[in-house]
Amino acid sequence: MIFSDNSLLWLENLLTERFGHAFTLCKQADALLLTLAGNESCIRFDQLQKIFHKSHSSFPCNHWQASSEGYTSPIEDILPAPSEVELPSPLIELTDNGATFHYDILGLTYWMLTRLEEVGSADLDEHGRFPAISSHAYKHNYLERPIVDEWLNILGQVIQRVWPDIGLKRHQFGMKVSHDVDHPARYGFANPKRLLRAMVGDIVKRKEYKNAMLAPWIRLNTRHKLHPRDPYNTFDWIMNQSEQHGLKSAFYFMCGRTDIIKDGDYEIEHPAIVDLMQRIHKRGHEIGLHPSYGTYQQPELIKNEAEHLKRVCAEVVIEQQQWGGRMHYLRWEQPTTLRAWADAGMGYDSTLGYADRPGFRCGTCHEYPVFDPVAKEQLFLRVRPLVVMECSVMAEKYLGLGATELALEKILEIKNRCITVSGCFTLLWHNSEFQKSTVCEIYQQVLGS
User: Fold this and answer.
1) pLDDT at 1
2) CA–CA distance from 273 to each of 47, 142, 265, 443 (Å)?
3) pTM score, two decimals?
4) Which residues of the chain have pLDDT under 50?
5) How are strands ordered across the β-sheet holding 98-101?
6) Which of 12, 222, 296, 335 has the smallest number of CB atoms closer than 10 Å to its CB?
7) Mapping DSSP to helix (H, G, I), strand (E, B) and coil, where does residue 40 land?
8) Domains along the chain?
């Protein structure tokens, strides 16, 4: 049997969260049986694939037309079906005692959600990240589809045919907006060299002559509060937008410095930062952790920075039921970074999206419990998949759509797919990226649509 006992228990938890019933997965030779207590019927999965238990991206992707067998696909009639073997026809057979599924949905779910594909990969970018363009999803053109959610939707339809008397859990679409606080101020915490560089950039690149003139004054007057004229001080505007749409923003702060170039230039204890965090907390928004650049392979550093954040917050009576956050630059090594978050006592992580492309790195837009595919054990941590980062869509080095109507259309297209599968659209937008009115308008339309 390919699945370990622990992985089956984890899958049972996933199915319980998704469908609202305590299904049991039983091993049977080279198949799995999905059963429900008090009922003799079952769903049999008889095409388990070893490829879903390997760190591998080079295998085919087939396709299946849902309507050809009387099922309805939530997004498109044709579903991508990663598989090392040809799909049989029919794919789903109803029987007197249940149904037989001739596609390894559970294996696909395991492979995508555990990010087993990435374990030990040497195909990394300049920041040590597994990039979207190396993924099976990108190579086979399904990165922008929540493929796991789509197949679980089909499984839900089979469940309702096998057990017509049970109702399945209904999920509601949600949206979570978060903001990595790499630079809370353009000028407020800059040393003389960085301040001069920012002023030159204002004049030469951005043609913002007034900002360049004000920069020294803003720097001198960022002592107890962020200066209202600092271009990166967009926090009140962000919170206003969230509150207008019934949302809570999460702001992830840096609490260490492992790279003097790539990390932030502020200290979490600075009076202006403490004042900012208190205002965020008072307005009912969230504070979280944004570990520094060099921590993703260093669990002890992530734990130290998490404790640092909690200690500073406790000193100013900022209390939260849950602590989460996201890695700087989306740097991630699976499962090293995953276990580091769990060992640091964090409740969730929202790193798992790609920097170079928007979409569904984990194949889902539903939050889920973590499973370590190397140690083969479930951890006390949840993954909140990142679906879209503004840079992934607009930055020239990535998708390169700029602050345009095309960028808005792309973000809304992906958001609508989250709506279709009743998931959560998780959006990252840096506080420092609201310098143009066109960007602000796109953000407002994304929140409001």
Assistant:
1) 62
2) 55, 41, 12, 24
3) 0.96
4) none
5) 24-28, 31-35, 42-45, 98-101, 92-95
6) 12
7) coil
8) 5-162 (no CATH), 174-184+232-448 (3.20.20.370), 189-224 (no CATH)
